[in-house]
Specification:
About 40% of the residues lie in helices and about 20% in strands. It has a single domain, classed as Rossmann fold. Strands 1, 2, 3, 4, 5 and 6 form a 6-stranded parallel sheet that branches. The protein is built from 4 helices and 6 strands. The model has no long low-confidence stretch (mean pLDDT about 95). Helix 1 links the parallel strand 1 and strand 2. The structure holds flavin mononucleotide. Flavin mononucleotide binds next to helix 1 and strand 4.
């Protein structure tokens, strides 16, 4: 399966996570591209295959700076993402109790509104927890791809 990982990050953690997920999925035979969200537009969803959003949360539950324009373009352009398979890896910190993982949630919400099929449950990594985000994300992504692959073949 072709998979595009779209990365929203402030201090690079989500990019590291995406790199490890790419390696794990590539080892299973998938063709994976990692794209930082900087300068992306909604038309990136015209790429074939499935999509993973890998993003942290900043400010008052906002998407990271490099994801703002991309998120805003999705909200404004409202492309029809019907038939597109997607998954969300969210990074956050539960010390921000009121806005915990809202960055991932915001992407989940707009993708769902635009008709994408969200495969699996959004991963919410907690930086105040005891696990490493890249390790949790690799385990999650290997399950996600097992769910997504048959759906991609059926499409
Ligand atoms: C200034 C600042 C604000 C943050 N705000 C939130 C927040 O509102 N909600 C949340 O869940 N995490 C928040 N975080 C935690 C980050 O999302 C988390 O540390 C993440 O792993 C960082 O990933 P990145 O390096 O890819 O940006 C914040 C972190 C910082 C430094």
């Amino acid at each position: 399966m072709q998979i595009t990982i779209l990365v929203g990050t402030m201090t690079g953690t989500a990019e590291i996570v995406a790199g490890d997920v790419k390696k794990a999925l590539a080892a299973e035979g998938h063709a994976v591209d990692v794209l930082l969200m900087d300068n992306l537009k909604a038309d990136v969803f015209q790429r074939p295959g499935a999509f993973l959003i890998c993003t942290s949360t900043y400010g008052q539950g906002d998407v990271p700076d490099n994801a703002r324009d991309f998120h805003a373009d999705l909200v404004a352009a409202r492309p029809d993402l019907g038939g597109k398979l997607a998954g969300v890896i969210g990074l956050g910190d539960s010390t921000y109790a009121d806005t915990y993982n809202h960055g991932g949630m915001q992407f989940e919400q707009i993708l769902s509104e635009l008709g994408a099929t969200l495969v699996g449950e959004r991963l919410a990594h907690n930086a105040s927890g005891t696990t490493l985000p890249e390790e949790d994300a690799v385990v999650w992504a290997l399950e996600w791809v097992k769910l997504a692959s048959p759906l991609a073949q059926a499409a």
